[in-house]
Amino acid sequence: MIVNIQKLNGLWHLIVGSCKIRTPFLETQDREWVVAYARRVYPGARVFERD
């Protein structure tokens, strides 16, 4: 499974397939927190950052 991380409207979002899932993290917070959250929610997934 591939999970993309993207900043959108001031929040970090996880993009899994065609679904955009809003995370509880603001855009100003560290990307490492979002990556840890994504790995906890989707264990074994590959995580990428999109611009």
TrEMBL record:
Lineage, highest ranks first: Bacteria, Pseudomonadati, Pseudomonadota, Alphaproteobacteria, Hyphomicrobiales
Specify the protein name: Lipocalin/cytosolic fatty-acid binding domain-containing protein
